[in-house]
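Bench notes, afternoon.
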Amino acid sequence: MRALNWSGTENSSLRLYAKSTFCAGVLILSLAGCQSTTPLSASRSATSVGAAEASFVQFSDVPVPSGASMDLERSLVLGEKEVWIGRLVMDVGLNSSKSYDFFFAEMPRFNWVPVTTVRAETSVLSYTRGERVATIQIKKKTLGGSNISLIVSPKGSPVRAGGISQAPPEQVTISPIR
């Protein structure tokens, strides 16, 4: 049986490898904490009781979970108050399932009408309000919490193949297959 000898040439390369691996791990973990985020105040609808103590002034027409922080590098917002358009990206402490539940419950309280929702690894919720459309994408973060991308844009008008707007389509009734 061979004794461990940390001073031999065979083991010096092992020590160098261990030190390099340790330094690389520390560097990666240090850089992971260097994100450009800014704390946001939680929003509050007129009907949500106890949802949030502070008002989210810049975006009074969409809910923002308590403790959310805005990703300034990935957010792009044009306009203000209830006429803004763009992409609002935030990190929240809620897991992706609770984030989905939050937006599913809160968006209608801000007068957004649901269009479609998909609960998956990347969940997507779509809403309309007046002449605007909101799409929310929710992704799980590796170390807990979730990343929210809330995109608000003007409603487009239907366009035919030739690029000419057409009248809105007729209302269609969908019945379940029996």
